[in-house]
Design brief:
By secondary structure, the protein is mostly helical. The protein contains 19 helices and no strands.
Length: 350
């Protein structure tokens, strides 16, 4: 590749309107989730500041609806179709692939990912509520249904779209702090609790992302980013170190503390001055190393289950084991993207 062509290639790759800080934030959140799921209790207790306040999922939800706000509020059907494709393709295809792979290996080689036959009933439940043998798909399940809800509201109410979202925001907090949501889903099995039961708990982050996008606040505060970042970090320190919010009964994600933390985290990473670096080579490198959060998130628990027999560090839940899971998930996603690049199956990994 000659230098002239290489320069054009890099400029093209980095020409996308990506925020470097948010890309790095996604990667950090992805690794945080792996650690939350795969680290042993002793290490978690050492770094309990991260694992008592599980803001990773609310942050991902906020990011998702921040960047989809314009498409939904403007009722851009092409972009909405693409968003739903990105969510539905992995949600439907991955469980089928895992079922066939698991059962085939168990039948022919007497080994498998899970150590048991995945039935069609298991697949049915997985697709209905986003949780059985691929537990992390509750998140895609939430994104799919919440996206559809927001789309319906946008088409039905148009001018009052944000007002309706704000009402949903208030109702969500009422259901959380009155414990109505908690006690209602307590009567169901855990797979229902940890899928449908979590809707109310992360709904405020969806609305927060939409409201932040509607206000265009980063255009207003970008000239004061140093002060904003300083005070955001200052408030996060107090939130994480002192019990300044009352506790609430919860299925998985706490009360307003996580919503506030996710907003502050998002603002910090969005405003990081690293985004001012215009070097096409640098931006392309960051884009590549942060590219596969979709595949990494989906694959990490599958790989944890499959590899904990082979890798002692994974079996014992060490930090090294979490890094190995991240690297394997990244490599599989990288290869998967290359193999599916000209098809919609690319959404399995990117």
């Amino acid at each position: 590749m000659n230098m002239k062509y290489k320069k054009k290639f890099l400029e093209k790759k980095s020409d996308k309107k990506i925020n470097i800080g948010i890309q790095l934030f996604r990667m950090f959140l992805c690794f945080w989730i792996i650690c939350d799921h795969c680290l042993n209790a002793k290490i978690k207790n050492t770094y309990k500041i991260f694992f008592q306040n599980r803001a990773h999922v609310p942050c991902f939800v906020l990011i998702s609806f921040y960047f989809s706000y314009k498409s939904i509020s403007e009722r851009n059907c092409d972009k909405l179709k693409k968003r739903l494709e990105r969510l539905l393709i992995p949600y439907i295809i991955f469980p089928i692939i895992i079922l066939l792979t698991n059962n085939s290996f168990l039948y022919f080689f007497k080994i498998s990912i899970y150590g048991y036959i995945i039935t069609l009933h298991d697949l049915y439940i997985q697709l209905i509520i986003g949780r059985t043998f691929i537990a992390v798909f509750w998140f895609q399940f939430y994104l799919i249904w919440t996206t559809l809800l927001f789309i319906i509201i946008s088409f039905l109410f148009k001018k009052y779209y944000l007002l309706i979202l704000e009402l949903i925001y208030i109702i969500s907090y009422y259901l959380r702090y009155s414990n109505l949501n908690y006690f209602f889903f307590l009567q169901f099995k855990s797979i229902v609790q940890y899928s449908v039961g979590q809707f109310v708990e992360v709904m405020p982050s969806s609305v927060s992302g939409s409201i932040i996008a509607s206000l265009n606040i980063f255009h207003i505060i970008k000239n004061y980013y140093k002060r904003i970042i300083f005070f955001a970090i200052f408030f996060l320190y107090f939130i994480y170190n002192f019990n300044i919010f009352s506790d609430v009964k919860t299925i998985a994600f706490g009360g307003i503390i996580l919503d506030v933390c996710s907003i502050l985290d998002f603002i910090i990473f969005y405003l990081l001055p690293i985004n001012n670096i215009k070097s096409p080579i640098f931006r392309n490198i960051i884009f590549q190393i942060t590219k596969y959060t979709q595949g990494i998130y989906i694959l990490h628990l599958i790989l944890f289950t499959a590899l904990n027999i082979k890798f002692e560090s994974i079996k014992t839940g060490s930090l090294k084991g979490c890094i190995i899971i991240y690297i394997f998930s990244y490599l599989i996603s990288f290869v998967g993207e290359k193999l599916t690049k000209k098809t919609k199956l690319i959404h399995l990994f990117v």
